[in-house]
Amino acid sequence: MTARTTAAPRIAVLGGGIGGLATAAFLRREGLDSTVYEQAPRLAEVGAGLVVAPNAARQLRRLGVLDAFRDRAVRLDTGWEFRRWQDGTVLSSENLADSCERLYGEQTYTAHRADLLAALQSRVPAGSVRLGHECVGLDTAGEAYTLRFADGSTAGADVVIGADGVHSVVRDTLFGAAPATYSGLCAFRALVPAPSAPEFARRPAQTLWIGPDHHLVHYPVSGGDLVNLVAFAPAGAYTTESWTATATVEEFLAEFAGWDPRLTGLIRAAGTPGRWALLDRDPLTHWSEGGVTLLGDAAHPMFPFFAQGAAQAIEDAAVLAGCLARGLDDPAAALRRYEGLRVPRTTRLQTVSHGRAHVNHLPDGTEQRARDTAYAQEDPLLANGWIYEYDPEAELDRMAAAR
Ligand SMILES: Cc1cc2nc3c(=O)[nH]c(=O)nc-3n(C[C@H](O)[C@H](O)[C@H](O)COP(=O)(O)OP(=O)(O)OC[C@H]3O[C@@H](n4cnc5c(N)ncnc54)[C@H](O)[C@@H]3O)c2cc1C
């Protein structure tokens, strides 16, 4: 177990995704070294897009990587532009161009995941990332922790951060293996070269077409060179959960038969779309045991319907690094404080993201009309203020003042 120590602890971060690299970057910013163990032979994100909301942009600025990130991102003028499935009637939207920075001090961006990963990686010393290290076990007996890897090698650590995603080995070690359940939903996704995409999909807007049992999202990424397209539909018997599984354009089109004909052109441009089943997990009430904790999707996987999973992983990283840096004499207590600051917020986001699956997929009828009326009366930029205004530094200051 982790002993009280005044020397800097050996910190192992398991997983070199957005959460793991953000953790290493924020620890570095606090003057703490860490080692990232990643199973993949190289750091690369398979193609897909992300919305980087003001709460995530604030953290990129703090790391000093926002300017570099912006070079390849797209600054949005319009966010959460909900459209009716049949004819594209706009039900509501965020006017980001006029208000986002004034309200939250940052803009909203869309980006290719690889560009976000590269921005975070630029703040992590190259020598501290060990690729090709698939962790197969974590021993928690004894004076310190031992990570065991598939190639038979091991590594010791005083603090272990499980940023190893939705199938986390660290979570299984701490809380027992419990496979995620299938949500009944699957996602189709594609990156469409901008010249092949219709004009409406090239606007700097995050657009969501919502209708019975389905919804479809698109926005430009990669400096406008590509349009990210992701669509959600009933999974039926489909249970493959892989970023590399594919579908056909015909299967994709069949799911959206009868929708606004403008979408047909966009879906046709999807080439060979990816397809995967969305997993579901109930929120955990705590994440840490001694000097071991969880972060990002390992701790709180969420449906992508508030576009906040990566943003929450980055916030986790900032809070975790702050707690550890302020509590090096007792890392286990620091991790409990981290968890105490983060669990309520991520649980709320898991819950509201889950709820949106029902709301976005209502069949036409009374409930759908009530939803559309509520959307029309709401300014989502203000309604989502609790998400966008969050600042880990303020949380850490509040914690320090309360101690
Ligand atoms: C369709 C979709 C759209 C999304 N849109 C958005 C969005 O717009 N905005 C947003 O903020 N979020 C979005 N998200 C969520 C976001 O992608 C995730 O929340 C985020 O990537 C989680 O990062 P992570 O680092 O915790 O986990 P992961 O990205 O899963 O990274 C885990 C890493 O750990 C490694 N690993 C796993 N097991 C081991 C092991 N045993 N040993 C060593 N390494 C291991 C993996 O190889 C991987 O590199 C979306 C998600 C989906 C599915």
From TrEMBL:
Native species: Streptomyces tagetis
Obligatory cofactor(s): FAD
Domain (FAD-binding): residue spans on this chain: 11-349
Keyword Oxidoreductase applies: yes
Pfam family name, one: FAD_binding_3
Keywords linked to the UniProt accession: FAD, Flavoprotein, Monooxygenase, Oxidoreductase
Entry GO MF terms: FAD binding; monooxygenase activity
Top-level taxonomic group: Bacteria
SUPFAM superfamilies attached to this UniProt entry: FAD-linked reductases, C-terminal domain, FAD/NAD(P)-binding domain
PANTHER family according to UniProt: GERANYLGERANYL DIPHOSPHATE REDUCTASE, MONOOXYGENASE
Protein name, per record: FAD-dependent monooxygenase
